[in-house]
Design brief:
The chain has 18 helices and 10 strands. The protein is mainly α.
């Protein structure tokens, strides 16, 4: 299964005419690689082209990640490649599992950084300093994000430097294991290139005079760092980065108060389903950090509509599993209360169309002519769940419980003062006072790791109690990821990361194998208890 014998960089370019045509790519506005860096406008167009690559890659990542998890399964009409990913048996030639699009992003970022640095050195002052630094920072972050996805999907990565030019013999490049890749990406984000790191927020609207939703397109560096720190088991850094982000400390310009705190300002009076049903996508929901956007009027189609819709004109290759739909039906699992309806469930995350069960997130309020639902790469609820994951690993179980449930608001005193469990310096942000937590902002009854359903009669002061509570919280975080992020390509990696970081592969195996028939579960459980089988085995064929 050949990835690439040689690497040839071709950077895409998108029109800069207006925000409506931001991602529009036609033969008339595409630029050849050799022409990309002849003047400033071409450099700008090349940067926009980097962002445009997310439109092609994001749907593929959602498909692959969801098929590996337990919430989405192939339908009878799905090609064999879908079933191979679902059953952890990828065969040569599987296009669903092909990593080439991710490596192409890396190549394009390398090409952009190298050529833009050269252009800026040759024509100093032509590109404003702030714009130049933001473009380089954006490319650094996008490259790191692409490599993180290569690592989490495939467990290894061919790693090559931005300064390489022309054709590159892959066999001469290092292949980093997953454990080697993560610290390398953290280092690259902190150092970057040309004395420009990847930690700077990229403000496209200010740079190029666009408005609204386009500011949510670049990869959020703070969200990416939060995730990288989690994979690296640096839990304090992950918690701090996440809290800084949701309180607006990482945002510019100033005044973006409580942007991502999941407060009563959630959605600016909008309901949860509007995250997916509004058109065009509305960043004022206080939720989207990085959004992949489409506009059907500009011939930009999100292919997930056809993949998930059972309309006769669509492919309908994937559908929710019973594991997913059962999360929202009957008695509310996490509250133990009858007749509590999770507003994220029936008719929102999933529904029925043409007599078939469908994932609704990419279909809501849209038609076959209007297939442009956004894809969230990072959103506020996911950041909260990652913070809870970090707090659990740090042993701050009360704070993790609060993040999952009512948030910071009930514990606020005044200034930077909070009652327990939010009294440590890491939480000392006055802006947290409005934060209501993942379930709290939806008025869903709280679920706590201390519930007797989970803890039984264990003595609260015993080591066994603490150990059990850690396991319960990990399970509750994974459960909430299913309810909140179903169909967004997140749950598989949440399970994988927690199982990996706690050295508990049986936990992942136990959860994931529920998607199979009872008779099949022992075979797949045995396979998934080996962490090596969590990664897609894709032969890179590095030799010439």
């Amino acid at each position: 299964m050949k990835l690439l014998k040689t690497l040839l960089t071709v950077t895409l370019a998108a029109s800069l005419v207006s925000c409506e045509s931001f991602f529009e790519q036609t033969p008339d506005n595409m630029l050849e690689a050799d022409d990309n860096y002849t003047d400033r406008s071409n450099v700008y167009a090349s940067f926009m082209g980097l962002m445009a690559t997310l439109q092609d890659v994001a749907p593929k990542l959602v498909v692959t990640a969801e098929l590996q998890g337990d919430l989405i399964m192939p339908t009878d009409q799905a090609p064999d490649g879908y079933w191979e990913v679902y059953r952890y048996g990828v065969q040569p030639g599987n296009s669903v599992a092909d990593p080439t699009p991710l490596y192409r992003i890396v190549m394009n970022c390398n090409d952009f950084m190298r050529n833009t640095i050269e252009y800026n050195a040759s024509y100093p002052g032509v590109i404003p300093v702030s714009t130049y630094r933001q473009m380089i920072a954006g490319a650094v972050t996008l490259r790191a994000w692409a490599y993180l996805n290569i690592g989490t999907f495939y467990g290894k990565a061919v790693y090559y430097d931005y300064a390489m030019t022309g054709e590159t013999d892959l066999s001469k490049l290092p292949v980093l294991s997953f454990d080697e890749l993560i610290p390398e990406l953290i280092h690259f984000m902190n150092t970057g290139v040309d004395n420009i790191n990847g930690l700077r927020r990229v403000d496209i609207n200010t740079m190029f005079g666009t408005t609204g939703i386009w500011g949510s397109v670049p990869i959020s560096p703070d969200a990416l760092m939060c995730e990288l720190y989690l994979w690296n088991k640096d839990y304090e850094s992950a918690a701090k980065k996440g809290i800084n982000l949701i309180t607006g400390q990482a945002l510019t310009p100033a005044g973006d108060n409580n942007k991502f705190t999941l407060s009563e300002q959630f959605g600016k009076t909008k309901e949860w389903h509007t995250l997916f049903s509004e058109t065009p996508a509305n960043p004022q929901t206080n939720e989207g950090l990085t959004m992949v956007l489409y506009d059907y009027s500009q011939r930009q189609i999100n292919p997930l509509y056809s993949l998930f819709s059972s309309d006769a004109t669509c492919q309908y290759y994937m559908k929710p599993t019973s594991v997913m739909t059962s999360r929202y039906t009957g008695r509310d699992y996490q509250s133990g209360v009858q007749n509590v309806r999770d507003p994220r469930g029936n008719d929102v995350s999933y529904g029925t169309l043409m007599g078939e069960t469908v994932l609704n997130k990419y279909i809501l309020n849209r038609t076959i002519q209007q297939q442009d639902a956004p894809i969230y790469i990072y959103r506020a609820a996911e950041i909260h769940l990652m913070i809870a994951e970090a707090l659990t690993a740090l042993g701050n179980y009360d704070a993790a419980d609060a993040i999952l449930n009512e948030g910071f608001k009930p514990y606020y005193v005044s200034g930077n003062r909070y009652n327990q469990p939010f009294d440590a310096p890491i939480y000392a942000f006055e802006k947290l006072k409005l934060g209501q937590g993942v379930r709290g902002r939806l008025s869903i009854p709280a679920v706590r790791s201390t519930d007797s359903r989970f803890m039984g009669d264990l003595e609260p002061e015993s080591p066994e109690y603490a150990e059990r509570r850690h396991m319960v919280l990990d399970s509750l975080i994974i459960e909430e990821a299913a309810r909140e992020l179903a169909g967004e390509g997140k749950r598989w990696f949440t399970m994988m990361r927690i199982a990996r970081n706690t050295n508990d592969p049986k936990m992942l195996a136990r959860m994931v194998t529920r998607k199979f028939a009872v008779a099949e579960r022992p075979v797949y459980a045995a396979k998934l208890e080996d962490p090596a089988n969590w990664f897609i085995d894709y032969d890179l064929e590095l030799e010439n």
